[in-house]
Amino acid sequence: MESKVNYTLVGAFVLLMSGALIAFSFWLGKYTGSKNNYLHYKVYLTESAAGLAPEAAVKFNGVDVGKVESIRINPQNSEEIELTLKIKKKTPIRTDSTAMLKFFGITGLAFIEIKGGSRMSPLIISSDDTIAIIPTAPSLIKRLDETLSAVITKLSNTLDHTNAVMSTQNTKNFSQTLENLKILTHRINGYQDEIDTLLKNSIRTEENINQTMVKVGDSANSVKGSMETFKITMSERLSPTMKSWEATSKKTNALLEKIDASMNRGDYDLQAIAANSTVELNELLAQSRVLQNEMELTLKSLRESPSDLLFKQSYPIPGPGE
After folding, report:
1. Count of domains forming the chain
2. Element (H, E) at 308
3. What is the domain range of residue 242?
4. Does residue 76 form part of some domain?
5. In which element (H, E) is residue 53 found?
6. Which H or E run contains 230?
7. Residue 80 CA to chain centroid, in angstroms?
8. Is residue 181's pLDDT more than 70?
């Protein structure tokens, strides 16, 4: 009876060990097969990787696509953190995709988030021989830190300038300026009547200027009328004299033609004709002298008093035979 129990235990143990060996073989084969479904990528962070640990999740637009396989300092650049990511093969990581460090809420657990990029961009090709590098983008914490640092720097500079402006000396100067402004305001109020008078005088001056401009316009019109009157007067004064000269010239021409005709025909006694012509010629010469004297007197009067043409009323002297 006792030997039967021992054989049963041994048989059960052998069956269990065989099942465990078979399960281990299946698990090992599954792991080996699944390993071929992943690709490796490199990511270089220029910020702190605090909170990020191996086996941390790698997400592609919020979808789990792999894990962080290793974390170390870049041997070629101590300012960078080198991450090796294990990502599923069919994940469409493109040349304009970026990796970013993110955190789960307020727990502080970090993971890697990959932004997909444009669908028109080519895919990044990675292999076991050549591991592709995914470009990085600053995390939210880094951007906040840089922004807060810049704001604090600007705020510090602003406070320094404010302290410089609001120094004791500048405060005294500002108070003195306000006091001087108050005094100036009181003085301006005291000169209010004078200012009102000055404004009224300015208005009157403007009215006087307008009236003066109107008078200037009237004077210009008067000068224009005086010039017209001058032209008319000159015409009236010189017209009789010119007519007299014209009449005398006609008589002289007629006499000369008469003498010439008589000389050509030989009908008259030359001495008698010359005597008569001499008398007429003497009369014409006398009239010419009178006209010449009148012209000289008229021109002399114009030279001595040109205003007589405009303001002195005179009548032309009748010419010979009028």
Report:
1. 2
2. helix 308-311
3. 224-311
4. yes
5. none
6. helix 192-265
7. 48
8. yes
DSSP 110-179: EEEEEE---TTSPBPP--SSS-EE--B---HHHHHHHHHHHHHHHHHHHHHHHHHHT-HHHHHHHHHHHH
Contacts of 188 (CB under 8 A, 6+ apart): 195
- Is 133 contained in some domain? yes
Q: What distance in Å separates the CA atoms of residue 198 and residue 195, rounded to the nearest whole number?
A: 5
Domain termination site, one of 140, 175, 190:
140
198-240 residue pLDDT tens: 787 878 787 778 777 777 677 667 656 666 665 666 566 556 6
> Could you tell me if 310 and 222 are in contact, meaning their C-beta atoms sit under 8 angstroms apart?
no
Rounded to two decimals, the pTM is: 0.42
- Residue 18: inside a domain: no
Q: At which residue do the structure tokens 């069919």 appear?
A: 90
Q: Read off the tokens for 11.
A: 């048989």
In the chain, pLDDT over 90 holds for what percent of residues? 12
Q: Which amino acid is at 304?
A: E
Q: Does residue 243 belong to any structural domain of this protein?
A: yes
- DSSP reduced 3-state for 96: coil
Which residues lie below 8 Å from residue 142, measured CB to CB, with a gap of 6+? Answer: 47
What's the longest Cα–Cα distance across the chain?
A: 215
- Helix then strand then coil, in percent of the chain rounded to 5, is 60, 15, 25
